[in-house]
Design brief:
- By secondary structure, the chain is of the alpha+beta class.
- Among the domains are: 380-522 and 573-640, Alpha/Beta hydrolase fold, catalytic domain (Rossmann fold); 526-565, no CATH class.
- The chain contains twelve helices and 36 strands.
- The strands form eight sheets. An eight-stranded mixed sheet has the order 29-30-32-31-33-34-35-36, with helices on both faces. The chain has a five-stranded mixed sheet with strand order 1-28-27-26-25. Strands 10, 11, 12, 13 and 14 form a five-stranded antiparallel sheet that branches.
- A hairpin with a 5-residue loop joins strand 15 and strand 16 (202-209).
- The N and C termini lie far apart (50 Å).
- Mean pLDDT is 91; it is low at 3-23.
- Residues 427-640 form the Peptidase S9 prolyl oligopeptidase catalytic domain.
- It comes from Caulobacter segnis.
- This is Peptidase S9.
- Keywords: Hydrolase, Signal.
Length: 645
């Protein structure tokens, strides 16, 4: 059995217990600032770690040996560092993004992803895809790293212009000397994904016609590219999901005739196999050496379950999770031989932290906590709940209860997730924990339309935007009130993205439930939102537009029913205080959505506060503005729904 050494456990406890114990309520910065420690990846030979640290407001790439000796680091400056990956033993590739409006490109500002190689030997940084003729220096996906003849090669999807149109194109980059060349690889105007095998050969390509909603798969068969499969997929491309069990076949998550999700393994023309449905995999695990499919993972109930095809691998993983019994353990990174493993351990008592497992020595050691100074006294308990919606549909979710308070007659914050086809999970959630630290119970319902509960549950949300998807939330409030856990007269609703829309709908469409509403980057005018989606796709119909219309239950942008679901068109119905918070650089839900709501409320003579987050995007990527959002939200709900009666 793997056990944590006493010294490692003591060191981790010292980190976790360093929060000030004398404060009546924990400092909101414990939750609202960016994670101190994240993105931990181990080098192929298992001797080094690359990780992302937050130093004040700035994110930093740090590279060190397992014994702690620093090998180098890079300050991300104003770039939003999104992740890192190893390329051989001497290179670390950093991915960052920034919001930009590129001169010469049609449409609104977009969030662009870039990749930079950090050479550990020379300490130099090199932007990938720099100075490529008729190409942008942005990447469209994570690079595929292959080591060929001892050289680290990055295969990168970039944008190359053909006939005045940007085309998803595959590039090959030798990280040692930066030599870059564009691969033809059967390029097509509608390409949206590639697979490169362990030998460095492009072998599969996904294509998607967004206007027609048509997907196709092409594979390289005996040096010739052939179309292997085609299908209508109006809601988006099926894409590619890596290699199959032999490391050569190609995997695609797609749907069958009944819209059930299936994992199909393609070997060639008319040669495919659907993996057994009882595998029930949400995510896939591939061998870091030969790229073959090893198994996968899924959330079953509240448990994150990993399934390996190989019994020996399954036994090894079971020993890892047993070392952290009672905690939620997820695989973050592993060495090439899979004997050294980095895991994220999400403790219901202490919060999340990273650990390193050595399967050969059967030892585990703590690497660091995700949220610095977050002690057990600042983590509130979370319980799973179930309740019935008004029409009888079972809704599940999570209830965070304020630590140290009797769970009776509590004030409540309803915190719906975004998506809307997202979901909440039982892991540590900084936003709900922050609200619970103020004395509130926090309800996070997985309303109809949420993913992870089967296709029928997702389908139940179609056409229910602002309708049953909304009353699923207030049905949860009524259930908690019936149990005596919360005071139904002291409830507010807070959310971001679709959750922000739900907050505004709680003030306009499902009135009488909430005392106040906080919308962070929430849509308020659905027609205007759809027009911005069309603008982003150069005025053409797109999978994104079809996706939104399906949930909204509208026939098109001109459908008059959209007005009846748009809070900005219903501002005169608002009877509670509303707080709007929006990032100025949001490229998903445009800033003008909150501006339109603010203007409508002011015109109707209704109470509204509007907080602008300068240089912030849809994901609250910057520490200062994320903390500002949290501070403003807490102050607002404390004013209009005091935690103490």
């Amino acid at each position: 059995m793997i056990k944590l050494s006493l010294a490692a456990s003591a060191a981790c406890f010292a980190l976790w217990s360093s929060a000030a114990l004398g404060a009546e309520k924990p400092d909101l910065a414990l939750y609202g600032r960016l994670p101190h420690f994240e993105g931990v990846t181990i080098s192929p030979d298992g001797s080094k770690l690359a990780l992302i640290l937050t130093d004040g407001e700035e994110r930093v790439l740090a590279v060190r040996k397992l014994d702690g000796e620093m090998l180098g680091g890079v300050r991300a400056s104003k770039a939003k560092l999104r992740g890192v990956l190893w390329a051989g033993e001497d290179h670390v590739v950093m991915l960052s993004s920034q919001t930009a409006d590129v001169h010469g490109l049609e449409g609104p500002a977009r969030e662009y992803l870039m990749a930079v190689d950090f050479n550990l030997l020379t300490r130099k940084q090199t932007l990938l895809l720099r100075s490529q003729e008729n190409s942008m220096n942005v990447v469209l996906d994570w690079p595929m790293i292959r080591v060929i003849d001892g050289q680290a090669i990055a295969f990168v999807e970039g944008v190359h212009f053909m006939e005045n149109q940007g085309v998803d194109t595959l590039f090959r980059i030798n990280l040692k000397d930066g030599a870059t060349r564009m691969l033809d690889g059967g390029a097509r105007m509608n390409a949206d994904g590639w697979l490169v095998d362990a030998a460095g050969e492009p072998v599969a390509q996904s294509l998607y016609d967004g206007k027609k909603g048509r997907w196709s798969l092409r594979m390289k068969i005996a040096s010739t590219w052939k179309t292997i499969d085609e299908a209508d997929s109006p809601m988006g491309s099926y894409g590619l999901s890596g290699f199959g069990r032999d490391g050569k076949s190609v995997l695609v998550w797609r749907t069958d005739d009944k819209n059930n999700s299936i994992l199909r393994e393609y070997r060639g023309p008319d040669d495919y196999e659907d993996l057994p449905g009882d595998l029930d995999l949400t995510g896939l695990l591939h061998d870091p050496d030969n790229l073959s499919l090893l198994g996968g993972y899924t959330l079953k109930g509240d448990d994150l379950v990993y399934t390996f095809f190989d019994p020996t691998s399954q036994k090894a993983w079971n020993s890892v999770t047993k070392a952290f019994e009672g905690d939620r353990v997820s695989l973050e990174s592993w060495s090439k031989n899979r004997r050294r493993v980095v895991v994220l351990v999400d403790s219901a008592v202490d919060g999340p932290a990273y650990a390193l497992i050595d399967l050969d020595t059967k030892k585990a050691s703590w690497l660091g906590v995700v949220y610095r100074d977050l002690g057990a006294e600042a983590v509130s308990p979370v319980r799973s709940i179930k309740y019935k919606a008004a029409d009888g549909l079972e809704i599940t979710g999570y209830l965070t209860l304020p630590k140290g308070r009797d769970p009776k007659n509590l004030p409540l914050i309803v915190l719906p997730h975004g998506g809307p086809e997202g979901r909440d999970t039982p892991g540590f959630d900084w936003w709900s924990q922050a609200l619970a630290s103020r004395g509130y119970a926090v309800l996070q319902p997985n309303f109809r339309g949420s993913e992870g509960f089967g296709w029928d549950f997702v389908k139940a949300g179609f056409g229910e935007w602002g309708k049953k998807m909304q009353t699923d939330l207030s049905d949860g409030v009524r259930d908690l009130a019936k149990q005596g856990i919360i005071d139904p007269k002291r409830v507010c609703i807070v959310g971001a993205s679709y959750g922000g829309y739900a907050a505004l709908a709680g003030a306009t469409l499902d009135r009488g439930v909430y005392r106040c509403a906080v919308s962070v980057a929430g849509p308020s005018d659905l027609k205007k939102m759809l027009l911005s989606v069309r603008e982003a796709h150069n005025g053409e119909m797109s999978a994104a537009q079809r996706y939104w219309l399906r949930f909204m239950g509208a026939e098109g942008i001109k459908d008059p029913d959209l007005a009846a679901l748009s809070p900005a068109r219903l501002a005169d119905k608002v009877e509670i205080p509303v707080l709007l918070i929006h990032g100025k650089d949001d490229t998903v839900v445009r800033y003008d959505q909150s501006q339109a709501m603010a203007d409508a409320l002011k015109k109707a003579g209704k109470p509204v506060a509007f907080v602008t987050l300068e240089s912030e995007d849809h994901w609250l990527s910057r520490g200062a503005t994320r903390l500002k959002m949290l501070t403003e939200t807490v102050a607002f709900v404390e004013k209009h729904n005091p935690p103490d009666p």
